[in-house]
Amino acid sequence: MTVAAHPQQQVAGAPATSGRRVAGALLRDRAAVLSTAYLTLIVLMALGAPLISAIIGHGPNDFDTAAVNTDLGGIPHGSLGGISAGHPLGVEPQNGRDILARIAYGARVSLLIAAAATALTTLLGVVLGMLAGFYQGWVDQVICRVMDFLMAFPALIFMIAILSSLPQGNRSVLLVVVISVFGWPYLARVVRGQTMTLVNREFVEAARASGASTGALVFKEILPNLRSSLIVMTTLAVPGYVGTEAGLSFLGVGVAPPTPSWGQMIASSVGWYAVDPMYFAVPGLFLFLTVLSLTVLGDRLRAAFDAGEAS
Amino acid sequence: MARYLAGRLAGVVLILFLVCLFTFVIFFTLSPDPAVMICGKTCTPDRIDQIRDVLGLNQPFLTQFTGFLGGIFAGRDYGHGANLVHCAAPCLGYSFQTNQSVMDMVVERLPVSATVAIGAAVLWLLFGILAGLLSAVKEGTWWDRTAMGLALGGSSIPNYVLALALQYVLVVRLQVLPFPQAVAFGDDPVVWFQSYLMPWIVLATGYACLYARLTRANVIDTLAENFMRTARSKGLSPALTMRRHALRPALTPIATIFGMDFAALLGGALITETVFGLNGVGKMAADSIAKNDQPVIMAVTLLAAFFVVIGNVVVDLVYTRLDPRVRITAR
Amino acid sequence: MSDLLVVEDLTVTFPTTRGPVEVVKGVSFTVGRDETVGIVGESGSGKSMTSLAIMGLLPKGARTRGSVRLDGTELLGRPERELRRLRGDQLSMIFQDPLSSLNPYYTVGLQIEEMYRAHRDKSRRNARQVAVEALAQVGLPEPERRVDHYPHQFSGGQRQRVMIAMALVCGPKLLIADEPTTALDVTVQAQILRLLADLRRESGTGMVFITHDLAVISSIATRVLVLRRGEQVEYGTAEQVFAEPRHDYTRMLLDSIPRIDDEVSA
């Protein structure tokens, strides 16, 4: 451009590749940076759980009766839920298990289940949503009916009912499957709608007219255009699944004890909240901050992508 | 209109039937034998057979399923001879745990869940929409950023964490509220109110934060619409421009979401009711699941699905009244 | 008799992150009573900003300099309360896209009535009668029935007729039409143009007609103002501008319309 640009174009600034532009926007946002930092910390903590255990000298299931006052019904020694050099985040009442070690190992369970559920949901949602949007007709009809049915289902009650009636087995895998079965329609609905509009756009029609195969159409033309909404939707889905896993564990149908999980830790603290508030405050705070960070990040990602589309 | 309604109701019945079938299949194939559970520790094979016979558990799947469905519409008999018990329609069977009629249990507990849902809905609509409106009008200001930050935080607190935190602060520490008790409104309105206050707040917080963000986004989008510019060009007062031209388009989608959220809550607020020990449908669901009380689980699942699908139909009907562009067309 | 609208050295400035940007740079023109003045320019030429500045409807943060006088009354810098009383009553506006410019939630009758009731008669029954008459005046068939219809139940051309009926319901002195035919089909465009020209002549309203299309201007305006990037590059009678354009930009705009010389000179 040789002439002075129109004011709106001047404001928008030099064009950048969308990935770099979004990353730049996030780096300038204090809330997004803080959230990313916190999440990195949690992931590192989950990965390094055995290391943490080794350093503080307590495994997640090691009893430490010396840390609790058996005369007072097992309340931890000390004022803040038994915080001490040996137990940086205190201990559980009664059996004295180290809370930091349990939080770290619990993070593994929570994050792994949430990540796996997100992956499975995304896979189901993208495949079924694209099938419905791409082929339309009866394929669309069938998939839409199934989605209607699943969304009309009282998911939480049903998840609990299924999980409680299933044999113990591998609870983590069951949780992932059950969460995903009820979760995919929400993503698929969006993918279906976007695929439908994309299929009718000129560039897809052009590709189709020039003889591109269905596979090429889907992977080269449609999928790349769904990328930004997929990133946003999955980022916003993760906190939901972290919360669902914790909720199910809280209700006693999640991962089986003694494997620690944040929801389960909060559930077992219910009877103690009056005398040992730190017992629920610590896992509660970790859970809250994780959900919040993921939500903030998803929110800011969406804003960054939207700003990119508008310019 | 009549054809549309008939079509929608047929859809409702179909979905409820599928929910029934699905739930039944899961229990029939996966669950441990309820007869063994009912029988308890001092049990003989004869006794188990007897229980199975009375409950019809030794019959094939289809017979059991049609028996259950028949009970809902026509009532059914359990056992025979001297042990015969008639359960009048709509019959949802008897609890394995208490032998109480499941229908009676539902009728007894539904008002509690409704009270929880209605109180929470009033709170979250009031605060959510008000905060969202203010934020939209004062977009970009200190108030907007604080309110939306809080809303983001508030919607990230799992409600059981909030419930425990509130109980600790209000009941244990500050002692401004008593521990929730099961008191009827007529017996002691003050204690009744105090008992429901925390459940209402806990349930309303997440929704209020969500609605505040939705309201803000919708109002901001509406204010940017061309018809708002037209309204200003007509010289209408700012109050009329806002009330008539901005609010109705901005709040109509929220009415839809509210209908669905509220309907889902009528089926029981599982976690909130459990944490506060409120004897609603949600707590009944949690208890029945913990004790594998199948007739009760079936009932609460069906009830929740019933509210969701009926809520869906009601929302669609109301929407045609709220948005003139939406026309009813028979499928 | 003095001119109806006098715009002198109008400048509109927007604050941006890179400092203030002038989107309208010293524009001056007049509109006589019973006259149509055309403003022509490409998108971003400042023509819409000029019209919004006259209406006092510029987006927040915009600053204006110069003078805009309607019937001798200065409009720039007037308190919003007084401007509101003039808007819709003394001067009104028609926008480009009639579908999005009408509120989808209310009947067209209500949207016409509320304007009349804001400035003239508060009673609902009179206002309704006025709305029906206004719809009849713009050539909408069955106005008694159509008055209770919603915008989505009209065709594009009919919607623009509704907008015109609404804009004229209080009998304004000045009508600003911002690309009123751009969103319409070609045949409908001609009908709407004729309707606007006829109604304007009957009511003796002054009109500012904004378009990017010089061909449209030739059939409706007596004087033409050409804007380019906020600057006034040409101003004169339609004959002058079309016969001997003084600026290259105008020549370029003229060249871009399919030549139908007979019609232009007629």
UniProtKB/TrEMBL annotation, chain A:
CDD domains according to UniProt: TM_PBP2
Transmembrane parts of this sequence: 31-56, 111-134, 146-166, 172-191, 230-257, 277-297
Membrane topology: Multi-pass membrane protein
A GO CC term assigned to this protein in UniProt: plasma membrane
Cellular localization per UniProt: Cell membrane
Keyword Chaperone: no
SUPFAM superfamilies: MetI-like (SSF161098)
Entry keyword set: Cell membrane, Membrane, Transmembrane, Transmembrane helix, Transport
Gene3D superfamilies cross-referenced by the UniProt entry: MetI-like
Main location (coarse class): membrane
Domain named ABC transmembrane type-1: residues: 107-298
GO BP term (any one): transmembrane transport
A Pfam family annotated for this UniProt entry: BPD_transp_1
Family: Belongs to the binding-protein-dependent transport system permease family.
PANTHER family documented for this protein: D,D-DIPEPTIDE TRANSPORT SYSTEM PERMEASE PROTEIN DDPC-RELATED (PTHR43386:SF1), OLIGOPEPTIDE TRANSPORT SYSTEM PERMEASE PROTEIN APPC (PTHR43386)
Protein name from the UniProt record: Peptide/nickel transport system permease protein
Native organism: Nonomuraea fuscirosea
From TrEMBL, chain B:
Lineage: Bacteria, Bacillati, Actinomycetota, Actinomycetes, Streptosporangiales
Membrane topology: Multi-pass membrane protein
Family membership noted in the UniProt record: Belongs to the binding-protein-dependent transport system permease family.
Domain ABC transmembrane type-1 intervals: 110-319
Record flagged with keyword Transmembrane helix: yes
Protein name listed in UniProt: Peptide/nickel transport system permease protein
A single Gene Ontology CC term: plasma membrane
Record-annotated membrane-spanning stretches: 12-30, 112-137, 149-170, 190-210, 250-276, 296-319
Top-rank lineage group of the source organism: Bacteria
InterPro entries hit by this protein: BPD_transp_1_N, MetI-like, MetI-like_sf
Key words, A-Z: Cell membrane, Membrane, Transmembrane, Transmembrane helix, Transport
Intracellular or extracellular location(s): Cell membrane
One example of a Gene Ontology biological process annotation: transmembrane transport
UniProtKB/TrEMBL annotation, chain C:
Domain ABC transporter per the UniProt entry, residue ranges: 5-254
Domain of life: Bacteria
Disulfide bond among keywords: no
Major subcellular site: membrane
PROSITE patterns named in the record: ABC_TRANSPORTER_1 (PS00211), ABC_TRANSPORTER_2 (PS50893)
Protein's UniProt keywords contain Cell membrane: yes
GO biological process: peptide transport
InterPro entries linked: AAA+_ATPase (IPR003593), ABC_Ni/Peptide_Import (IPR050388), ABC_transporter-like_ATP-bd (IPR003439), ABC_transporter-like_CS (IPR017871), Oligopep_ABC_C (IPR013563), P-loop_NTPase (IPR027417)
Example of a GO cellular component annotation carried by this entry: plasma membrane
Name of the protein described by the UniProt record: Peptide/nickel transport system ATP-binding protein
Originating organism: Nonomuraea fuscirosea
Lineage: Bacteria, Bacillati, Actinomycetota, Actinomycetes, Streptosporangiales
